[in-house]
Design a protein that fits this description.
Blueprint lengths: L1 E3 L2 E2 L2 E2 L5 E6 L4 E8 L3 H18 L4 H17 L1 H12 L3 H21 L7 E3 L6 E3 L7 E5 L7 H12 L3 E5 L5 H13 L7 E3 L4 H9 L4 E7 L2 H12 L4 E5 L6 E3 L5 H13 L12 E3 L1 H16 L27
Parallel strand pairs: 1-5, 8-9, 8-11, 9-10, 11-12, 13-14
Antiparallel strand pairs: 2-3, 4-5, 6-7
Helix pairs in contact: 1-7, 2-4, 2-6, 3-4, 3-6, 4-5, 9-10
């Protein structure tokens, strides 16, 4: 079992309240035991992010980018272990988990490269001998909340550009996949990122978000998750008129017409419905089939569903349960 603690001001800080995540393949046995931050811990994370912003925002952008590369290098060196943790805690197949790890690696390397291309620009003025231009300035503290269904790749979509452009970050992963969220901290800690620049909090989402979103220094908010929670947090955030990014749920029906290639339709909709353990905001939830091909499509689709295997990755590796067979050094801050 992994022991995970919130990452605040460059340190992993243990709090008295302890909880465990559950392996979805067994619905038992903790994958990660983690400590929940209290209000004092949230305050400490906010204060450290605010303090770190003063120097981080003035650090040369190419220097900031190097920390993204170092975090990517750590992920690259531990791909298999991180992927197995994703499978144990979130439930997707090991192949999909490896793809997610690779996605995170590529996002970090992309923004490392952007460190050489972040520029301002001058535009033509209507007046002679007058130049108009732009300059990119960091905002402040950025609050990032990520979902359980892609717990390793999605956080970096917001964290990497925020850090590159001189902002400090407070990250709140889903409580369902706390161990995977913890690995985001481990990667940045291994990269040597300065204290307070990146912080991770585990615990009561309402308390954490209310406290963070009411802070004036928090100038941007990024949330990926359910529509109901997103709307609630957006209402809080809207009182302060700060920037926000909301990526919420949304599903559309698939329509299979009589002249469709049924082999392609079946394989595509099996993937759409069951990939990522069926936990995707764009997952297939309804299929509308033209009557002429309904029976044949249904027959093929059901046959395809029956071939899907459900189980845990550890069974194929001779491990008794969850991540116990992996080298724990990988998961130590």
């Amino acid at each position: 079992m992994i022991n995970a603690d919130p990452y605040i001001n460059g340190e992993f800080v243990r709090f008295p309240s302890r909880k465990k995540t559950i392996n979805p393949a067994t619905m038992q046995g903790g994958v990660t035991e983690y400590s929940e931050v209290d209000e004092g811990g949230v305050e400490k994370a906010l204060a450290s992010a605010e303090h770190a912003f003063r120097s981080w925002s003035r650090t040369n952008v190419t220097e900031r980018a190097v920390f993204l590369k170092k975090a990517a290098d750590y992920i690259d060196a531990h791909r298999q272990d991180i992927a197995e943790l994703i499978t144990d805690e979130e439930g997707k197949t090991i192949g999909e988990a490896l793809n997610e790890v690779n996605n995170a690696y590529k996002v970090l390397y992309y923004y490392f490269g952007e460190g050489r291309r972040v520029t301002s620009y001058v535009v033509q003025s209507e007046q002679n001998e007058v130049f108009a231009g732009t300059i990119r300035m960091p905002l402040g503290v950025v609050y990032v909340v990520s979902p359980f269904n892609s717990p390793f790749s999605i956080p970096f979509w917001n964290i990497a550009p925020a850090l590159l452009h001189g902002n400090t970050v407070i990250f709140k992963p889903s409580s369902i996949t706390t161990g995977v969220g913890y690995m985001v901290s481990v990667a940045f800690h291994a990269a040597g990122i300065p204290p307070g620049v990146f912080n991770t909090l585990f615990g009561n989402s309402d308390m954490i978000s209310q406290k963070i979103l009411s802070r004036e220094s928090v100038q941007a908010f990024a949330f990926t998750g359910g529509t109901e929670v997103g709307n609630k947090l957006s209402e809080i955030n809207g009182r302060y008129k700060r920037r926000q990014i909301l990526e919420l749920g949304g599903k559309d029906p698939a329509i299979v017409c009589a002249d469709a290639n049924l082999d392609l339709a079946v394989s595509s909709l099996l993937f759409a419905s069951f990939s990522n353990a069926g936990q995707r905001c764009t997952a297939g939830s309804r299929i509308i089939v033209e009557e002429k091909v309904y029976d044949e499509f249904k027959k093929r689709f059901v046959e395809g569903v029956k071939k899907i295997k459900v189980g845990g990755v550890w069974k194929e590796q001779g491990r008794e349960d969850g991540p116990s067979g992996r080298p724990q050094a990988v998961f130590q801050g």
